TrEMBL record:
Official protein name in the record: Redox-sensing transcriptional repressor Rex
DNA-binding region: 18-57
Keyword Metal-binding: no
Purpose: Modulates transcription in response to changes in cellular NADH/NAD(+) redox state.
Source organism (scientific name): Metabacillus fastidiosus
InterPro entries listed in its UniProt record: CoA-bd, NAD(P)-bd_dom_sf, Rex_bacilli-type, Rex_DNA-bd_C_dom, Tscrpt_rep_Rex, WH-like_DNA-bd_sf, WH_DNA-bd_sf
Binding site for NAD(+): 92-97
Keywords linked to the UniProt accession: Cytoplasm, DNA-binding, NAD, Repressor, Transcription, Transcription regulation
SMART domains documented for this protein: CoA_binding (SM00881)
Pfam hit, one: Put_DNA-bind_N
Assembly: Homodimer.
Length: 212
């Protein structure tokens, strides 16, 4: 099962966690195999795309049999580094940040928020959802070298300067929940999730394309 990961297209890679979550559920309910049609129905990705995606993983479904759940699961576990715990930092312990600290990411994947930063004296020194909160002044000193991912839930106007510091400290990926568009070097990966925009876009689509 030696698959060259650089050959997996990015769009396919993005769907991996989705497939993984569903297959884990199937596995715990005792299912040994699954068809692309069943998968398609559950994860809402058309079955041709699923078949193409899975062919990159070396998983070739058999007609009338489908895919072997165990094979796929062990592939996903390996590819998504599920045997290894990924520690993540969170900057900005406001409403959204606090919710993330309480959220159990381990339910669905092997990531955990291990450290948080804020500037609010009331929060600094406390533990929220079992995660210690440090002052942002101590970012460089306290952020461990093995933490290379950060979740950004600070006010937009401070997002860029914090991002610059995070990158200097060795952060490689940022999940940006602020509305700020961040400028970063090419090798840094930013995933931007603007909840307000997503919500507005949903409402717009419901209004203007109600039947699609
Ligand atoms: P949210 O946007 O998550 O609902 P909120 O409305 O509670 O949060 P915001 O003003 O957006 O509050 O701030 C989010 C958090 O970021 C707060 O806990 C605030 O103390 C913190 N914060 C503000 N400025 C900075 C900064 N420069 N560095 C780190 N944290 C900051």
């Amino acid at each position: 099962m030696n698959i060259d990961q650089s050959k997996i297209p990015q769009a396919t890679a993005k769907r991996l966690p989705l497939y993984y979550r569903f297959l884990k559920n199937l596995h715990s309910s005792g299912k040994q195999r699954v068809s692309s049609a069943e998968l398609s129905d559950a994860v809402k990705v058309d079955s041709a795309t699923i078949r193409r995606d899975f062919s990159y993983f070396g998983a070739l479904g058999k007609k009338g049999y489908g895919y072997n759940v165990n094979y796929l699961l062990s592939f996903f576990r390996k590819t998504l580094d599920q045997d290894e715990m990924t520690k993540v930092s969170l900057i900005g312990v406001g409403n959204l940040g606090t919710a993330f600290l309480h959220y159990n990411f381990l339910k669905n994947n092997n990531t955990v928020i291990s450290i948080a930063f804020d500037i609010d004296e009331e929060k600094i020194g406390s533990e929220i959802g079992g995660v210690p909160v440090y002052g942002l002044d101590h970012l460089e000193a306290e952020l461990p070298d093995d933490v290379t991912v950060a979740i950004l839930t600070v006010p937009a106007q401070v997002a860029q300067s914090i991002t610059d510091r995070l990158i200097k400290k060795g952060i490689k990926g940022i999940l940006n929940f602020t509305p700020a568009r961040l400028s970063v070097p090419d090798e840094i990966r930013i995933h931007h999730i603007d909840l307000a925009v997503e919500l507005q876009s949903l409402v717009y689509f419901l209004k203007h394309y109600p039947n699609e």
